[in-house]
Amino acid sequence: MTTHFTDPSLDHISNKVQAGERLSFDDGLTLYNSPDLLGVGSMADGVKRLRHGDRVTFVVNRQINPTNLCVLSCKFCEFASKEGRPDAYVLSEKDMLDRLSPDLREVHIVGGLHAKWSFDDYLNVVRIVKKNFPSIQIKAYTAVEVDFFARREKLSYADVLRRMKEEGVVCLPGGGAEIFSERVRKELFPFKIGWSAWADVHRQAHKLGLRSNATMLYGHIETLEERVDHLLKLRGLQDETKGFLSFIPLAFQPGNTGIVQRPASAVDDLKTIAVSRLMLDNFDHIKSYWVTVGEETCAMALRFGADDLDGTILEERVMHAAKAGSPVGMAKERLSRLIREAGGVPVERDALHRDLETAAA
Ligand code: SF4
């Protein structure tokens, strides 16, 4: 990599990256504060290329959000509803099955914390999918939901996760992490779990052989220091368990929350992808989630360190409840074209990030 930076403070970091040295908290802040977006991006692109070359993966998947009824009222959430409101819903078995087809590789199941649902009701969603579409891999329930089931049934996280695995769950989504800052948690989601419980759920999942993903919700009231701290917490946990498949930065969708006026800029989105790629040296995959950043920024992110685009999705309610501007689904051909236009080679994968040919073997 021979990059000429317009910001000289990047030279030192570039030397460390080229020497394979781990970046520090201060390095993370320097990257975020640098006005040289292209310099930061080219460093991250270099790291991505060393790991993955031109390959960009995606999965043919679909989301099932079984209900939006939720006992919590996180300030940033426009998805959750309460009993009796016109937008409240609970999907029937038929509703769920109508969303699935045998060509799907992955179904991603997350939803609200329903006041009257038992853990078994949530497991039943998994059973319905498994029984009718045994070939679809199931990625289900965030750490927030796992904690809810555990408290409701007075079970340990390990017991809850073991039951989920027995029913056919292969990995956990990364949601519910938001930002691991107690200051932000107290302000925006005081009744939801924080870093310590989120980490423990993933730690227990990894011990049981379940893989999982990790996210960071950015672009609300968090500081850059809190973002870098979030990344370092995840890097430490990955050192310990090696169970994370991917990291997904999620751009906050302000909708009608009033928390901020507009979503993070494309510059912030791209820089966040690049900083994540550079700081998370022990994560194989950095995902650019087109649902939150839109197709155009997502395609550019493939030159800023991202190597995965998530999936076709087809229907997504959580972000679109907050008026995410992206389409609700993308056909496989369209995703492939997007990747090729950005100079990448599209590779279809499964929920565990195995190439399809490998996965089928
Ligand atoms: S973010 Fe999750 S836990 Fe919080 S209100 Fe929304 S659905 Fe409920």
Tell me what the structure shows.
By secondary structure, this protein is of the alpha/beta class. It has one domain: Alpha-Beta Barrel (TIM Barrel), CATH 3.20.20. 44% of the residues lie in helices and 13% in strands. It has 15 helices and ten strands. The strands form two sheets. It has a seven-stranded parallel sheet. The chain is globular and about 60 Å long. The mean pLDDT is 93. The site of iron/sulfur cluster has 11 residues, from loops.
Question: Could you name the CATH class?
Answer: Alpha Beta
Cα gyration radius (Å):
20 Å
**How many individual helices?**
15
Basic shape:
globular
**Cofactors and ligands:** iron/sulfur cluster
Average residue-wise pLDDT = 93
The percentage helix is 40-55%
Q: What characteristics describe this protein?
A:
single chain; 361 residues; alpha/beta; TIM Barrel; seven-stranded parallel beta sheet; 15 helices; 44% helix; binds iron/sulfur cluster
Short description:
With 361 residues, the chain is α/β, with parallel strands linked by helices. The protein is built from 15 helices and ten strands.
Write the SSE topology:
Elements: H1 9-18, H2 25-33, H3 37-52, E1 55-59, E2 61-64, H4 93-98, E3 106-109, H5 119-132, E4 137-140, H6 143-153, H7 157-167, E5 169-172, H8 182-188, H9 195-207, E6 211-218, H10 224-241, E7 244-251, H11 266-279, E8 285-286, H12 290-301, E9 308-311, H13 318-321, H14 332-341, E10 345-348, H15 356-360
Parallel strand pairs: 1-9, 1-10, 2-3, 3-4, 4-5, 5-6, 6-7, 7-8
Helix pairs in contact: 2-10, 3-11, 5-7, 6-7, 6-9, 7-9, 11-12
The chain binds iron/sulfur cluster.
Iron/sulfur cluster binds next to loops.
